[in-house]
Every structure is written in C-alpha cells, then in structure tokens.
C-alpha cells in the first residue's frame, strides 16, 4: 500500500507569510506525528495526534505553529508569520496506534523562508 | 531533559571495514530504542528496534545493535560495510508513557568508499 505522503515537497516563502504543510498518513494508522529537522541537527518532535486529538503539543516551538487533523486522515501543519529560523525539513510520520509501534516517515517538506 | 547522544557526526570507511556507531541516551526509566537510516534522496526508514527481550537485535541489511542497560547505550554494528551503506544514521528512543514521540540523536553521516 501507499506510504506516508507529504505536500508540497518544497516550499519557498517570504518572511512574514503563512504556510500550510500537508500530511497523508498510511491508511488505518491512527497515530500521526510531526517532526522538524533543521540543518545539521537531529529531528525534533513537534506534535502528536491520536485520532484527531492532540494530547501532546509540547514540541511546538511557538504560538505561530499550529496543527490539526481531520478524523484519522489528513493533517495540516500551519506556520503563521514565518521567520527565517523556521527554515527546515518538516517530517510527518504515522503508526498503527499508541504504544510500542513503529513510525513510518514521509519524504518531508523542505521549507525555506527568505 | 531526556536526550540522545551520537558521538560520531561523520564516519568514513572503506568497503569491508567494520562499523560501530555509538548511541547513548539519558533516561532512567523504560525505553524503546531505534535506529533509523536515511539513504541519499530517500525517506527515513527503520533499520532495527528494541522493545524487550534479547538485548542483541538484528535488523535489515546485516545490521545489528546491542542494548546495554547499565551503560544506557544502543550501539549499531555491521561487520563488513558496503558502498551502498552510505547514508545518515539516526538513533532514537521513545519513553515509557511518553506518547510514543521519538527523541532523536543528531545523526551520523557514514561515507563508504569503494
């Protein structure tokens, strides 16, 4: 079956603009995660969804970042008033459920804020 | 705060050399441990994982890792590397009760020369 997909694959935006990043998880996966990878650094956790609720938003770096999920499918990560330090690869992952489940990653969205 | 340390940021080897990549984590409780690999131009994918049981786990492509609880370590090994192992390798943990969010190390870039 299809893996995790993300769109767009690349996004260049100007400082101050809003961006929306989209993630389609693997069908049937109830858990969905967003991570960010800045240049030369490891991945950092942003937010997690179980179904359409987000019990852990602890990783969102500021109130400019928000995310939502429709049911157990698509999720969008929105960054308002983008800053240059938001430039990174944004990765989405999904897993079957909570607990000790393997996460499957999408290809990421490479965001560049000029 | 919990963290994962990967001591080698860049490793260069010749084909057939043995590989060991270090990974240590800082958390006193129960953890699940993972190694992910990202080949050039590809998604992040799971190499191997440890949840419980035999602390020596075998993954894909001849990789293995050993969980040493007393040392808080989960080093990745391969007896004989190939050019196709050139990739970036990430160690990660999930914490018991931590909603399954992955905490990643900074990654190790491995270059294997023919």
Structural class of chain B, by secondary structure, is mainly beta
Query: pLDDT average of chain B, as an integer?
Result: 92
Low-confidence segments of chain B? none
Structural class of chain A: mainly beta
Determine the fraction of residues in helical runs of chain B and give it as a percent range.
Answer: under 10%
DSSP strand tally of chain A: 11
**How would a crystallographer describe the biggest sheet of chain B?**
6 strands, mixed
List segments of chain A where confidence is low: pLDDT < 50 over at least 5 consecutive residues. Answer: none
Task: Work out the radius of gyration of chain A.
Answer: 13 Å
What's the number of helices of chain A? Answer: 0
What features would you highlight for this structure?
heterodimer; A: 114 residues; mainly beta; seven-stranded mixed β-sheet; four-stranded antiparallel β-sheet; 11 strands; 0% helix; 50% strand; B: 114 residues; 12 strands
3D structure, described in words:
The complex is a heterodimer of chains A (114) and B (114). By secondary structure, chain A is an all-beta fold. In chain A, strand 7 and strand 8 form a beta hairpin. The N and C termini of chain A lie far apart (37 Å). By secondary structure, chain B is an all-beta fold. Helix content of chain B is 0%, strand content 53%. Chain B is built from no helices and 12 strands. In chain B, strands 2, 5, 6, 10, 11 and 12 form a 6-stranded mixed β-sheet that branches. Chain B has a 4-stranded antiparallel β-sheet with strand order 3-9-8-7, with no helix packed on it. In chain B, strand 7 and strand 8 form a beta hairpin. The interface between A and B is medium-sized, with 30 and 23 residues.
């Amino acid at each position: 079956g299809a893996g995790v997909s993300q769109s767009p694959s690349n996004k260049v935006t100007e400082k101050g603009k809003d961006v929306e990043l989209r993630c389609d998880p693997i069908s049937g996966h109830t858990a969905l995660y967003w991570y960010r990878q800045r240049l030369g650094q490891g991945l950092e956790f942003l937010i997690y969804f179980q179904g359409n609720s987000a019990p852990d938003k602890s990783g969102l770096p500021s109130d400019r970042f928000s995310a939502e999920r429709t049911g157990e499918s698509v999720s969008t990560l929105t960054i308002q008033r983008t800053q240059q330090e938001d430039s990174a690869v944004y990765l989405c992952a999904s897993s079957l459920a909570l607990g000790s489940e393997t996460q499957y990653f999408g290809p990421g969205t490479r965001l560049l804020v000029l | 705060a919990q963290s994962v340390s990967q001591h080698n940021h860049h490793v260069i080897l010749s084909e057939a050399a043995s590989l060991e990549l270090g990974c240590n984590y800082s958390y006193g409780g129960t953890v699940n441990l993972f190694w992910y690999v990202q080949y050039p131009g590809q998604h992040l994918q799971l190499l191997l994982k440890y949840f419980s049981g035999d602390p020596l786990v075998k993954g894909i492509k001849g990789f293995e890792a050993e969980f040493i609880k007393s040392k808080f370590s989960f080093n990745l090994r391969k007896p004989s590397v190939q050019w196709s192992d050139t990739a970036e390798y990430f160690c990660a943990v999930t914490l018991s009760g931590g909603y399954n969010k992955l905490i990643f190390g900074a990654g190790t870039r491995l270059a294997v020369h023919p």
